[in-house]
Amino acid sequence: MSFVGLHIHSDYSLLDGASQLPALVERAVELGMPAIALTDHGVMYGAVQLVNLCRDRGIKPIIGNEMYIINADNISERKKYQKFHQIVLAKNSQGYKNLVKLTTKSHLEGYYYRPQINKKLLSEYSEGLIITSACLAGEVPQNIIKGDFQQARQVAKWYKKIFGDDYYLELQDHGSREDRLVNVELVKIARELDIKLIITNDSHFIACHDVEAHDALLCIQTGKLIEDNQRMRYSGTEYLKSAEEMKQLFRDHLDDEIVAEAIANTLEIAEKVQPYNLKSKPRLPNFPIPSGYTSDTYLEAVAWEGLENRLKCKTRSEIEPDYKQRLEYELKIMQQMGFSTYFLVVWDYIKYARERQIPVGPGRGSAAGSLVAYALGITNIDPVHHGLLFERFLNPERISMPDIDTDFCIERRDEVINYVTEKYGADKVAQIITFNRMTSKAVLKDVARVLGVSYADSDRLAKMIPVARGKPAKLKVMISEATPEPRFKEAYEQETVKIKNIRGEEKEEIPVRRWVDMAIRIEGTNKTFGVHAAGVVISSVPLDEIVPLQRNNEKAVITQYSMDELESLGLLKMDFLGLKNLTAIQKTVKLIGQNKQVEIEPDEITFEERKTLDIVRKEKIKLNSENPVRKTYELLESGELEGVFQLESSGMRQVVQKLKPSNIEDISSILALYRPGPLDSGLVDQFIDRKHGREQVEYQHPMLEPILEETYGTLCFQEQIMRMAQDLAGYSLGQADLLRRAMGKKKMAEMQKHREIFIDGATKNGVLKTIAESLFEQMINFAEYCFNKSHSTAYAYVTYQTAYLKANYPVEFMATLLTLNSSNSDKIEKYIENCRTINIKIEPPDINRSEVDFTPVGEKILFGLSAVRNLGEAAIENILTARKEAGGKFSSLAELCDRVNLRVVNRRALETLIKCGALDNIEPNRNQLLHDLELVYGWAQRRAKDREIGQITLFDVMANTSVEEDSERVYESAPKAGKVADFPAKEKLQSEKELLGFYVSEHPLNAANKAAGRIFSPIDFNQLGGKGLRSKVCVIGMLSEVKHHISKKSGDRMAFVKVEDISSQIEGVVFASVYAEIEQYLQVDVPLVIWGKVDKREEKIQLIVEDLELIEKVRMIMIDLDVNQVNHSENDSYLNRLKSLLQEQRGGEKARVPVVGIIGSHQARQFVLFAEKYWVQSCQATVNSLQNAKFAARRESLLSDYRS
């Protein structure tokens, strides 16, 4: 006997269901089920995925929803009604539409703690639905449990009346007394009212051995420990059961005939369900076409007009043939594929953005290869000039929806989405849901928490999991023979960890294996939903006729299906991305206008580059040093690329420095090549060497030269593979795109077919068969690495624009970067250090001059108040308003306190302003100001209270002076504390770091860097990324955080540290092998010399600390060398004796004491730093040895001014 599961929860019942749909469907097939239903709590998230999976496995999908139903006339009423569970299944396509409507209404109209509907709605949308009485939380079972058998019958009668034979009573048995009570009564009701019975198992996980993992999932949802006996628990029987298991369940209280009948009725329901017709042709929105046009002819008109404007032609006849033919061809393809409306929709909202000065990116993805897109202003990339291929974007031989993604200013993106929503209707536009799955790292920590495993243990194990391209390795891989981290596998197989009970007491030890195995069971399950960062869906009909909708946490309407599923339903998906760099460009241009009175149009920046380089090539001239294009490329070569789009990472900066790009094509190529594949294969080094002539560029066939010349004979782009197929083997570009896709996706059967076509076509074109075979193999190998040239070129434009602004207007550009990152202290610190490097002075915040944002003042930047911690937006706004009312300047602390609203600008905010130096221009003694504040604050509060109740002082009445003089005298009369000394410099610096995220006055490491830099040649952290793993380095830095740790495995002590230098901060580790020796120096905020090795963890550079010493304790050996002995070659024995003595004192790897020789005296002195092989381990012992040998040696502090 077969059985169909009709009450099934997947992991789309977030943190309640543990069944992932692929495994669930596979298990249904194993159990011989001809169909499977999906009834997640209140949602239809998995419906489309279920249909696809079932189709592939040859069983029938049944789309459902376990809904919440209330007995109320108005579901929008904010009143707490009992929510009964109700299983609703879609019997056919009409039933699917009605289920979508009900689900949407439950969320958009009825959401009150949970999505809810009422019987009125259920009746209104009853067509095509099958209803069952659900679990014990259903309305009929609830009345039975309460003993109201008559009401239970009344409810059943209502459903029978509305749904007839499509209403079933549901029997369940999870071992509870209530189950048996309800089941017996349901059988009676069924017989009395002629309602059929079904049996179900309320499945929340797939198999019985998943019960513990599912229990952990519930604890993750509720924040409880597994051992907590007071928490919500399931019976442990809620898994997908076979027909035989279901037959055994009810034997103790129901007849076998009843059970057999109920099982058979599950098959009856499955038989009733008809295939759903979910897929659809594209449902393009109804774009308003002007009278006299069709969508095709209107697109043509707009495109030709746009191209004339782009090329500065007065008539179509003036357009060059290449452009004319290309536009005609593209328009023809778009019209044949039915995409004219699509392009008009995109053109319209981008035109809207441009008309309102909302920054729009130059292009993104393969759309930059379309001349129509360029003509319409959708992109700003000339595809003809850059050799971009239309077929990479729209392939006439592979019909699929076009995909135009657009970057907008991150601050104004929502304006464009709002425009689209208003234009096409709020019921036809929505943002798109995403699901956040539990990755290996996250699930390991979550399960550790509910088991009671300590944070230290969970963090230690989680940190062993490597991350590649943003994805952590799966737990099954971590414990396999192919594990990327043997320590993890060893811990899994051998270690135990202590767990704590709900009182926080250590209870027992459990094997790591149990913890990890439990995590594996729920790894990859959906944890939460989110909103796609860019995706917006636009429909020609109301969306709730196609897809269920809900609201996100910000109350915006979003779909319940993900992006790929929406496209399969024929819905048009548009990507509206927010790109901070576009905002940076716009804000910089605005500041340039204000600060330099220069008007710049961002799109003209790249046009000027093209025009300038054309002149250079044609006239063979050199650009002068002040030429903005030359300055831009000099900046790129210098490596000072903080804030330059896509080039900020240390590795990329080093590549760009080596490359020395000289045009946008070089930038585009390096953006394409800077990825793991090309880097690991040596392609990047080859590209650079060929550009600079260090490696000869050779082509296997002359036809390759025009294709590969731009990239120095190196395959970089997918478009080059397509061109090779076209030019060498006679492919059409559409066919070449299919070849490119087959190669990129490693479709072996397709590649074998193309191999024969390519080689045959190439040999017919005069290419030797051996060369054709070799080229095809190269194309296969490179297809994995090759990048989309259209996308790379578009982003190269943004890269060049940001580089141009930084090179030519650095003050305005850096001020913008600081403003846009004011809430990110790490970036603020990095950009401020970069300002110092390029000689831009950052002035500390000033209560009388600072604005909300960082502000260019001449060639300096004034710190913005928005980046000061403990100052909220309201406080800043109030300060600026009060300053304006004060005539633009506060004369004293008293005036500041008196004029601001102290409820908004509270004591903490005022203390912050004092400590960070914002009041230094009023009174430089910060300690004095803090003491004064204790008195002034109360004084200002009293004055504010007096003003509120309308009182004025006798002084105010008697005053016979102007308002300005009166105010001045009032503030002078304000109470002040007695004189106190200012804070020590170190304490002031610490306050600056704490409140501003960096040191304003000076960095504590400045002196250390100056002294140590002469001797140790330390590397700064921004350069570590360019060092090979395990490279030995010396750095000057301070520990900003130290976490001492005891290894669970060995019991040894070690430490995790955060280390900062002047440029940035990185993580470091002190292993047990050196911990004891340097533990005393593990102090925060103390300048150190640190020796160690470069390592990488989770794709981040970290430092393995091998040794360190306080800068102030670092000593060196100074030797006064006899100038006569040194200058006479016959006295080599003098130097040899000295070298020999130093080598005797070397003492192994930790020879860290430098040796400096002094030749001559007074003004003629020369200092000679001995090579590291002559450095020694013990300073004093070496000095003693040298002195005994009659050398004038002495110890000297590294920080001493020994050169004076």
Distance between the termini: 99 Å
Oligomeric state of the chains in view: single chain
Q: How much strand?
A: 5-15%
Instruction: Specify the number of helices.
Output: 49
Mean pLDDT metric:
91
User: Could you give a short account of the major beta sheet?
Assistant: 7 strands, mixed
Number of DSSP E strands: 29
Rg, rounded, reads 37 Å
Unreliable runs, pLDDT <50, ≥5 residues?
Answer: 957-963
Summing up helix and strand content along with how strands pair, one would put the structural category as alpha/beta
Helix content: 40-55%
Overall body shape: globular
Number of domains: 6
Question: What report would you give on this structure?
Answer:
- The protein is 46% helix and 14% strand.
- With 1204 residues, it is an alpha/beta fold.
- It has six domains: 216 residues, TIM Barrel (Alpha-Beta Barrel), CATH 3.20.20; 192 residues, no CATH class; 222 residues, no CATH class; 187 residues, no CATH class; 108 residues, OB fold (Dihydrolipoamide Acetyltransferase, E2P) (Beta Barrel); 83 residues.
- Strands 1, 2, 3, 4, 5, 6 and 7 form a seven-stranded mixed beta sheet that branches. Strands 21-22-23-25-24 form a five-stranded mixed β-barrel.
- β6, α7 and β7 form a beta-alpha-beta unit.
- α17 runs antiparallel to α18 and α23 crosses α36.
- It is globular, with a radius of gyration of 37 Å.
- 43% of the residues are buried.
